[in-house]
Structure formats: structure tokens, C-alpha cells
From TrEMBL:
The protein, known as: DNA helicase RecQ
Cofactor: Mg(2+); Zn(2+)
Annotated Helicase C-terminal domain residues: 222-373
Enzyme Commission code: 5.6.2.4
């Protein structure tokens, strides 16, 4: 030990200790760093918080020249550069937020060899002047951060990333390191292909975040459920609550504040100053809750986020994993909590149906959603399923809701048949279209005004479903939707049959469903009904 610098550990370890003040490398960091220092290309797949930045920062400091870092996180560049400068690293950035004078200064530093690291927004590389600038300096390496942005299969595609393949053509001798926290096989292959990284060594870290407890419950009164969670388990903790729309961000933040929890909204509809202020308060103060759309969080490095709560269903497992990954970077126990309901499925299926883009694009969106739904409806360990999606085999974790309070599976074939035949009746006899609410009322034998109006109490299926409660029927509908055994159509969530419905109706297919506790384990409170 001591300030002796390189003694015994090689230049990389020396820089780690002297510049960054850390004792030891984590995981594969050392291997990756040495590989890049030696001039090799690398594709690094490491979860959020795994320590990707050092994998290019240290080689840039050890190799001669300037490390060029391509990153889409323009809003964070200033912070990143400030943090590096505070450590004595000579860093600068070029992006669209600067005026020409600021840009000129950074360019001069680059040309004078006065920079160790230069951060670039990808669109800068579309500009020929930027390429010529790079030609005139000495580049030690290219780091391509958030490399999944090049993948159209992924959930965060950015067309500007496609231009990055030219880096290798123009500077064939400069090593490249691409980094991402998204690692499905498909994305992974696409990154290697599009960035022409065929000879790159792949470093795949485990995507397990053992300190995060994954929990998914059905949505009844979402804001109440959230408040329960915060009060019983996370009083005074910092956390992120994700909502799909700006309106629900505002409403949820207000609701929390009214209930004595310090919460701030964050979404693209707020002006830039308010957003920046809320973000920096969240980073600097203790125990703040930020309620946000997914616009919030990319690249945010706050180690003590104790919970990430989703009040709406994420569109993909990649998104879910990345968002929940913002919890517990410090390694301490943290919660990833998601409430999801029938309406989420209806809404997202509709968004896919009406989305722009071709059929292949819609199929891709549907595949993403289906993987997300499968996680929600599994009776197995959530972590096993999540990791399996990222290509990793594991065993039951003991730290997710499925492991802690095992749900039972039940044979829902008859229930499914009752529900499907009700849909058939409504279609045949009335030519009218009805959603889950009306169908459930019919099954339960409820003589509501709307049931009477359409003579639905005269149907042979009226009241054949009284063996299940209303909440259970909602669960059945939701799970059949998730399994593709029914579908929704139109703006009112009309339930319709699918190609596979007939198999169930004809008795040729068993339907296994997840039975969930009436109220989830931790927040259990006496509540009748
Ligand atoms: P990622 O980009 O993979 O999400 P970061 O590079 O931001 O992760 O690193 C996450 C956190 O871990 C940062 O606060 C970073 O300083 C810290 N860190 C990274 N490597 C080490 C290490 N070897 N020792 C201690 N802390 C580290
Ligand atoms: Zn588990």
C-alpha cells in the first residue's frame, strides 16, 4: 500500500488508486482495461452500476492520446466532465448545448493534446468538421457508451448511432470499446454486427443484482398501494416512482406530498430549469422521492436509491431491468416494486396496434411486451426468469415475491372456458361489443343497469361464474390477455377471441393461472371482500 503508484500492480491499478481513489478492481474491470490498453477491441455487457466507466477512462489515461467517448446522455456530460476534472482528469465535451465559442475552446484543447477524455454526442460525428478535427489529434481509444442504442431490436434505438460504424473504417488502428447494460442475445449480436466488432472480445458480467428484491403485485388502488409500501418499508428513503404519463406523474407526486412524503415530479413537460433543479435535489438531498416518466434516470448515479416503484407496466424487460437497476447501486438491500393490472395490458396492446411503423416493428413491440407480461404472470422465481431472458441460468433466489410468498398455480381451464363462451355469446347474439367489466358482471350474475339494458341477464352464461370473486375474474382476464388467449380491440377495450381461443373452448388446451394473495404479503391489512 502507499502512494508509490505503479509499484506491483501495473499502470492500471496505479491509476485506479491514485486518480480514482479506489483500492481494487471490481469483477472483470481489470481484464477489460488491460485488454483495451493492449489495443484490443471489447464489447462490455455489464449491469447498471457495475462500473463500466472506468473500463474506458483508465485505458484512456494509460494510453497516449485522447480517449473519445460517444454518449447519448447530453444532459449529463457537463456533470461527468466536472466530476472527472475534480479528480484531476483533463476532460471536455462537444455537444449541441454549447455555443461556438465553448466548442472552439474544447477543440483547441483537443488539438493541443491537453485532454485525456473527450465526450461527444453521436450526432457530432455526422458533421464532417468533427471527423476532420479528430483526424488532426491523437486518439487513444473510442468508447461507445450505451451501445444498445445502435440496435433496432432494442428498446432505445437512435439512428445517429448507425454512423458509428465509420469509426473503424476511418481509424482502423484505434481500439474500440462498446459498453451497455442491455444484454439480450439479440441486442448483443446486433451491436457486434452494426459496429463491426466481430473481432472484439466479449466481456459478459452477471446481470444479477442480488440485493434488489423484485416484487410484482396486481394493481387495485395503485397510489394507496404505493403509499403502503413507502410507509411500511421505505420511510425516509430515497426512491424513484415511474409512471407512464405526465399527468399521472403530477397526480402521484401531489398525492405523496399530501400524505407527508417529500416527492418531486420529473417529466419532459416541465421546463428545463425545473427538471434540472429536481434532478439535482434528488441527487444531493437525502430521502427524496422522485416521481418520473422514463425520461428520468439514464446515467443517474445515485448509490443509495432504496426503491424503484413502477405504477405502470414497462414496455419491455430491458426497460424494466434498467429502471429497477437504478436501485441499490451501493449493494444494500433495495426494492423493485411493480403494480400492474388489466388496464395496463389493454392500454399497451392498443398502443402497439396503433403505433407507427411497419408490421415487423409492431411484432417486435409485441414480443417485448409479451416477455414483460410473462415475468408478471410467472409462478416461478422472478429473478430466474429475468436472468434467463438475458441468457443467464440461475436457481431460485430467495429474494423475490415468488420465492418469499410462493403463489400457487391453479387450473383455470374451466374459468377460461366460461369467460370465452360469454364473449362468444355476446358476439353471436347481439353484434355488440363489451369490455372486461360487462363480461365480469354477466359471469357474476349482477343485474346492473347495463346488464338489464342489453338483456344480458337472459343469457345462458348469466351467473355461471359466482365461484370466483370479481378480483379473481379480473386476474383471469388479465392472464388470458397475457397468454394471448383473448385480445382487446378498439378504444373501449372490447374483448375478442384469438386464434388460440378455440383450443381452450374445445377442451384441447389446459390453462394454468397464477393465484395471488388477495392483498400482497408485506402490506397485508384486514380488508374484506
Ligand atoms: P455503470 O456505468 O456501469 O452504470 P459506473 O461506471 O457509473 O457504472 O460505476 C458505478 C459506481 O461504482 C460509481 O460510483 C463508480 O465510481 C463505482 N465504482 C466503479 N468501479 C469501482 C471500483 N473498482 N471500486 C469502487 N467503486 C467503483
Ligand atoms: Zn426468487
Amino acid at each position: 500500500s502507499g502512494a508509490g503508484g505503479d509499484a506491483g500492480g501495473g499502470p492500471a491499478l496505479g491509476v485506479l488508486r491514485r486518480v480514482f481513489g479506489y483500492d481494487a478492481f471490481r469483477g472483470a474491470q481489470q481484464e477489460i482495461i488491460e485488454h483495451v490498453i493492449a489495443g484490443g477491441d471489447a464489447l462490455v455487457l455489464m449491469p447498471t452500476g457495475g462500473g463500466k466507466s472506468l473500463c474506458y477512462q483508465i485505458p484512456a489515461l494509460v494510453r497516449g492520446g485522447v480517449g473519445v467517448v460517444v454518449s447519448p446522455l447530453i444532459a449529463l456530460m457537463q456533470d461527468q466532465v466536472d466530476a472527472l476534472r475534480a479528480l484531476g482528469v483533463r476532460a471536455g465535451f462537444l455537444n449541441s448545448t454549447q455555443d461556438s465559442e465553448e466548442r472552439r475552446l474544447v477543440e483547441a484543447e483537443f488539438l493541443a493534446g491537453e485532454l485525456d477524455l473527450l465526450y461527444l454526442a453521436p450526432e457530432r460525428l455526422r458533421v464532417e468538421a468533427t471527423l476532420r478535427l479528430l483526424d488532426r489529434g491523437t486518439i487513444s481509444l473510442f468508447a461507445i457508451d450505451e451501445a444498445h442504442c445502435v440496435a433496432q431490436w432494442g428498446h432505445d434505438f437512435r439512428p445517429d448511432y448507425l454512423t458509428l460504424s465509420q469509426l473503424h473504417e476511418r481509424w482502423p488502428d484505434v481500439p474500440r470499446i462498446a459498453l451497455t447494460a442491455t444484454a439480450t442475445e439479440a441486442t448483443h449480436t446486433e451491436i457486434a454486427g452494426r459496429l463491426n466488432l466481430k473481432d472484439a472480445r466479449h466481456f459478459v458480467a452477471s446481470f444479477d443484482r442480488p440485493n434488489i428484491q423484485y416484487r410484482i403485485e396486481s394493481k387495485n388502488e395503485p397510489k394507496r398501494q404505493l403509499l403502503d409500501l413507502l410507509r411500511t418499508e421505505h420511510a425516509g428513503d430515497a426512491g424513484i416512482v415511474y409512471c407512464l404519463s405526465r399527468a399521472s406523474v403530477e397526480k402521484t407526486a401531489e398525492f405523496l406530498v399530501k400524505n407527508g412524503i417529500e416527492a418531486l415530479p420529473y417529466h419532459a413537460g416541465l421546463d428545463a430549469r425545473t427538471r434540472a433543479e429536481h434532478q439535482s435535489r434528488f441527487l444531493r438531498e437525502e430521502g427524496l422521492v422522485i416521481v418520473a416518466t422514463i425520461a428520468f434516470g439514464m446515467g443517474i448515479d445515485k448509490p443509495d436509491v432504496r426503491f424503484v416503484a413502477h405504477l405502470d407496466l414497462p414496455k419491455s424487460l430491458e426497460g424494466y431491468y434498467q429502471e429497477t437497476g437504478r436501485a441499490g447501486r451501493d449493494g444494500l438491500p433495495s426494492t423493485a416494486w411493480l403494480a400492474y393490472g388489466l388496464q395496463d395490458v389493454v392500454q399497451q396492446r392498443r398502443m402497439i396496434d396503433t403505433s407507427e411503423g411497419d408490421e415487423a416493428h409492431r411484432r417486435r413491440l409485441a414480443a417485448h411486451l409479451n416477455a414483460m407480461l410473462a415475468l408478471c404472470e410467472t409462478v416461478e422465481c422472478r429473478r430466474v426468469q429475468l436472468l434467463a431472458y438475458f441468457g443467464e441460468k440461475s436457481t431460485a433466489c430467495g429474494n423475490c415475491d415468488s420465492c418469499l410468498t410462493p403463489p400457487s398455480a391453479w387450473d383455470g381451464t374451466v374459468a377460461a372456458q366460461k369467460l370465452l363462451s360469454t364473449i362468444v355469446r355476446l358476439k353471436r347474439e347481439r353484434g355488440q361489443k363489451f369490455g372486461a367489466g360487462q363480461i365480469t358482471d354477466i359471469l357474476l350474475g349482477k343485474k346492473t343497469a347495463k346488464v338489464i339494458q342489453f338483456d344480458h341477464d337472459q343469457l345462458s352464461v348469466f351467473g355461471i361464474g359466482t365461484d370466483l370473486r370479481e378480483g379473481e375474474w379480473r386476474g383471469v382476464v388479465r392472464q388470458l390477455l397475457a397468454q394471448g388467449l383473448v385480445a382487446v380491440e378498439g378504444d373501449y377495450g372490447t374483448l375478442v377471441l384469438t386464434d388460440t381461443s378455440a383450443e381452450v373452448l374445445g377442451g384441447g388446451r389446459e390453462v394454468m393461472l397464477r393465484r395471488e394473495p388477495e392483498r400482497p404479503a408485506r402490506a397485508a391489512k384486514a380488508k374484506s371482500g
